[in-house]
Amino acid sequence: MIKIYTTSTCPYCEMVKEYLKERNAEYEEHDVSNDEASQKEMLAKSHQMGVPVIDIDGTIIIGFNRGEIDKALNK
Amino acid sequence: MNDLIIIGGGPAGIAAGIYASRKKIKTLLITDYFGGQWIVASDIQNFIGFKSISGFNLSKALEEHLRLQSDIEIKDQTLALKIEKKDNGFAVKTNKEEVFETKTVLMALGTHYRKLNVPGEDKFMGRGVFYCATCDAPLMKGKAVAIVGGGNSGFESAIDLLPYASKIYLLEYANTFSADLTTQEKAKNSGKIEAITMAAVQEVFGDEFVKGIKYQNRQSGEIKELAVEGIFISIGYQPSSEIVKGLVELNKAGEIVVDCKTQRSSLEGIWAAGDISDALYRQGNIAIGDAIKAVLNIHDYLKGK
């Protein structure tokens, strides 16, 4: 299961979404701008506040890092 | 062997790619991703031909235009790591263990965020220290924040933060702000911003997350603290010229010194355009023009003119 934490204004979040779509990976998006519960969840998982945060089956990736995303997807 | 390798996928790299392809120059373009610095700009109002467009959508439009060209090879998601001078041109090594040979190189790698280099900056990165206000402003809802830098990027960060932050301190090292007056007015009219000049930032502090910022008033020498939960560093950019260090002449700022008529660097066979060059003004529109100039000159060069 893939969860991504985003804000509505963040271009790198769009890139993550496009990248996952290219790889036919389904994801659930949580916009943390207006959703405090998701914001807390993201903080707890990544111990930081920058977006995007990607949770691929428990592997937490901060930022649009293709190498890390590929590694986690191929696990 | 390629005639030309373009390194970079911002406005300069893309414009060069389109022109090179139409000139039938055998070209390879290497870039991590397409976009460039303006990708995080939420609203661009001075790109000629567009009344208002986000940097992200503008980048998409440019990339699409490039990908329509039939005569260019594109390696995206790839970083150029090293350029080596050979007898008849250059060899460009990538992070994917590939080596490409070429007669000429156009450096269009642009710049990356400049860091402040004060204690706490690295430790709190993402934990209150941010470089992209467009991205992370919504997380600052109801919080006091500080922006470091009173140039265009600083004031644009302030505008991105206005709908969210409860209070915005804008710290500038010099005694005046260098941002465009229209941008300054837009920010200052909000009443939420407290502008502080002559401020030398000394430290970012906190526990798990940022709690504040310490700066010295350069006039009085007094050390002051501001209680903030977010610090946005907007002190400009530094040229991504590491891979040509020692190969071509760089100025003190690390920019590639070019001849402004042709965009040629100090080494025959290497050109540069856009923010990586020592161009006087940093604008997407200008980067595009300079890159086109470079390709036309490369075309002449390859024809032996």
UniProtKB/TrEMBL annotation, chain A:
Origin superkingdom: Bacteria
InterPro entries in UniProt: GLR_AS, GlrX_YruB, Glutaredoxin, Grx-like_ET, Thioredoxin-like_sf
GO molecular function list: electron transfer activity
Short name of one Pfam family: Glutaredoxin
Ranges where the Glutaredoxin domain occurs: 2-61
Organism: Candidatus Wolfebacteria bacterium CG1_02_39_135
A single GO BP: cell redox homeostasis
Protein name: NrdH-redoxin
Automatic annotation (TrEMBL), chain B:
Domain of life of the native organism: Bacteria
SUPFAM superfamilies (UniProt xref): FAD/NAD(P)-binding domain (SSF51905)
Alphabetically ordered keywords of this record: Flavoprotein, Oxidoreductase
Flavoprotein among keywords: yes
Any one GO MF annotation of this record: oxidoreductase activity
InterPro entries: FAD/NAD-bd_sf, FAD/NAD-binding_dom, Ferredoxin-NADP_redctase_2
Gene3D superfamilies from the UniProt entry: FAD/NAD(P)-binding domain
Domain FAD/NAD(P)-binding intervals: 3-285
Protein's recorded name: FAD/NAD(P)-binding domain-containing protein
Organism: Candidatus Wolfebacteria bacterium CG1_02_39_135
